[in-house]
Specification:
Blueprint (H helix, E strand, L loop, with lengths): L1 E8 H9 L3 E6 L3 E6 L4 E6 L8 E4 L6 H4 L5 E4 L3 E4 L2 E4 L4 E3 L7 H4 L1 H18 L18 H19 L2 H11 L9 H16 L2 H15 L5 H11 L5 H10 L4 H12 L5 H16 L15
Parallel strand pairs: 1-8, 1-9, 4-5
Antiparallel strand pairs: 1-5, 2-3, 2-6, 3-4, 6-7, 7-8
Helix pairs in contact: 4-11, 4-12, 5-6, 6-8, 7-8, 7-9, 7-12, 8-9, 10-11, 11-12
Length: 302
């Protein structure tokens, strides 16, 4: 069977150009993760999932990827295609997509960003999946379970490190959160991805890069291989297409678009989208008084 790719990321292109040996790491209905000998990942995904930092996006998917690409199967990489089992994916006509987000945009539109963040907060609060760490946004410590409590405590330590410029405290806060929860991308890691996106959105790029690198270095070796790879990508300011869309509409006037973009992220995984959005919102809430371009007073009524 031959499948056509409509787009692939610069990260995926690099993986494909340098790969000699790889196999299927995990396979699901609409997504399949491949890993090479160096432990580097790319993901083959259905177009309903969209572009990401290391994805190949398919035009059509007649069957479940889980049925076509079995776990452990070897991957043969050619010049313009890759083959798993009897399935060949042709990316010769695919568009190259950049995962790097324009993080200067929120700083150029602080009024819209500030207003839309409040609406985003309410949308997450009202629509996040049960079991996500979003309860942190509206609950006292006494009402939270172990994972949420640990994430909240570790986040505050991380924020103290950022405010005081203490890299060691940032490192310890991130390390204590890494791997908390279950699944290929545990809740603590998804929360940290949201934290890093908040740092990129509201702080100077030099500071955001330094703090994000500290977070990723602290967390990536303490969690799953796939989650560690995603943390490393986020530290570079790389994000999925859904996050590109959200940051873009946060800097504009239409609240309906903000709600739609938020719901798209909330649909990711069981709780992954909600957990990342929680990290994003809580970080902006706790750190907005420490930036210099008009994002103060982003506090919410629960």
């Amino acid at each position: 069977m031959q499948l056509l790719s409509q787009s692939y990321s610069a990260g995926a292109a690099e993986w494909l150009s340098s790969n000699n040996s790889a196999h299927v790491f995990s396979s699901f209905e609409r997504a399949c993760n491949l890993i090479d000998e160096q432990g580097r990942f790319i993901a083959i995904v259905h177009n309903t999932i969209g572009n990401g930092p290391f994805t190949i996006v398919l035009e059509e998917l007649p069957l479940s990827l889980e049925q076509m690409l079995s776990v452990g199967a070897p991957v043969v990489v050619g010049k313009n295609s890759l083959t798993v089992n009897t399935t060949t994916i042709d990316f010769s006509e695919a568009t190259l997509w950049s995962a790097r987000l324009d993080w200067d945009y929120p700083k150029e539109r602080p009024h819209h960003f500030r207003k839309n963040i409040r609406d985003l907060y309410l949308t997450v609060q009202n629509n996040a999946s049960d079991g996500s760490v979003s309860i942190i946004l509206c609950s006292t410590k006494e009402n939270m379970g172990y994972v949420c409590t640990k994430v909240a405590e570790s986040a505050q330590q991380l924020y103290r490190g950022i405010v005081s410029g203490n890299i060691q405290e940032i490192y310890v806060g991130a390390a204590n959160m890494a791997g908390l929860g279950v699944g290929l991308t545990p809740a603590g890691d998804d929360f940290l991805i949201g934290v890093m996106y908040a740092l990129w959105a509201i702080f100077d790029q030099k500071d955001a890069a330094r703090w994000s690198r500290t977070i990723a270095d602290a967390a990536s070796s303490r969690t799953t291989m796939l989650s560690g790879a995603m943390l490393q990508q986020s530290a570079n300011g790389h994000a999925s297409e859904n996050w590109h869309a959200l940051v873009d509409v946060l800097c504009k006037e239409n609240v309906t678009d903000v709600t739609r973009a938020c719901m798209d992220i909330l649909s990711l995984g069981h709780t992954s989208g909600a957990d990342a959005l929680t990290g994003f919102l809580l970080s902006i809430d706790c750190l907005s008084d420490h930036v210099s371009f008009g994002l103060g007073d982003l506090y919410y009524e629960n």
